[in-house]
Amino acid sequence: MPELPEVEVTRLSFADRIDGAVVTGVRLGKPLRWPLGIEPAQLTGLHAGEVQRRGKYLWLPLRAGGDAASPADGGLLLHLGMSGSLAFSHQTSLPGPHDHFDLATDRGTLRLTDPRRFGAVVWSPAQDAGMAGKLLASLGLEPFDAAFDGAHLHAALQRRRVPIKLALLGGDIVVGAGNIYACEALFTARIDPRTRSDRLSRPRCQRLALAIRQTLQTALELGGSTLRDFRDAHGMAGQFQLSARVYGRAGLPCTVCGSLVRRIVQGQRSTFFCPSCQKR
DNA sequence: CTGGGCTCCTGTCAGC
DNA sequence: TGCTGACAGGAGCCCA
After folding, report:
1. Predicted TM-score (pTM) above 0.85
2. Which ranges of chain A have pLDDT less than 50?
């Protein structure tokens, strides 16, 4: 589920409220992708800072408080995997079978619900150290970073021979576009998802860079996509899926030309595209 | 280094 | 109604 827009919508929905909260306890459910990496009791008493996002990861700084740096300082790196969602609420119900992490604070409880458990909550001493450092190190540019433009995309793609759709999903060139938004951005840029990355001309890379930004921006404004169960930390569903032009529309007419949208498989994942609008 | 394929786990839905 | 298989928004890891 959660691609950049959903993660950002989630972040925005609780960032103000958790900033400054003091941890009062931690509850763990079933194991997630990786172990927490710290004794849960050691988090009690730490002060939460501003939640940040990097790609599809969230980083919640936790500090001992006071002015001086403390050996206890660090933070939690959170990832929603395929089916995760976060809720931050005062009145937290009894944990259900898919509630695998609760961070109780004096301002409410941050709860990760994740049926498939591909998500993660991992302690690191800093964003650029430990497990977080390792996971974030290989990420590509943020799509809204000024440095991400057609020239950058073109240069990066020159070194790749995989189909462009897979290069986008890789996340080491540009982060944030997952399966839905990669399909949608390629449609907007009128590029066939099977096109070899190194065959894309500079003008087409320019179009694609713009399309990626535009697609993610629109999704953000619509509150993300809710295909099955995505909710932000207020429990709100997203609306982007209603405006998807190719994703999930196999066999339906293209909204631009009327040709039937096709579904193919790339890297064991579905790709949707219009064979008429999108060129190699 | 690149690229391809597998894997983690559970839920849902289509088809029989 | 019940069973089976396909498929699902991510991405690390192993191997050639």
Report:
1. yes
2. none
